[in-house]
Amino acid sequence: MTSIFEVLVLEKQYAAARAALRGIIESMIAAGRQTMNLHMDVGPVELHKNIAVTFEHANEGTRFDEVWSIHWEPENGGPFPEFSGWLSVQYASGGFAQLEVRGEYAPPLGAVGKGFDLMLGQRIAAQTCKNLLGDIAGLVQDRAVSA
Length: 147
Fold this sequence. Notes:
Elements: E1 2-13, H1 14-31, E2 34-42, E3 45-57, E4 67-74, E5 83-91, E6 96-105, H2 110-146
Antiparallel strand pairs: 1-6, 2-3, 3-4, 4-5, 5-6
């Protein structure tokens, strides 16, 4: 298993960001699967892949703040890993909020997949997390402004 941990500090105060994120994730849970498009430049190659993302309520005892479980898998299959982990909003310095994604995946395709993961797959997985955090941060910003 390969572990991932990505953080994005928001330009929003913690209380407003937390309330906005709760509303966003509750809406996503009610709607079911969400689709995001992974876009990453890998040297001379551009990679595009739709990822199906689902959220659920989580009871993760090591965190003070709200935590949701998150799972994604490639739409229409392919040699891409499934990811399972947690999304949370945390207090950051200055009263701001930060979004965190933490989890793990198993590289597909056995030994070949492990080699690919070491060379490039981990970067793709990290970029997927960063894209997801960026998308959610945009939603938090929009909701926190309109609230």
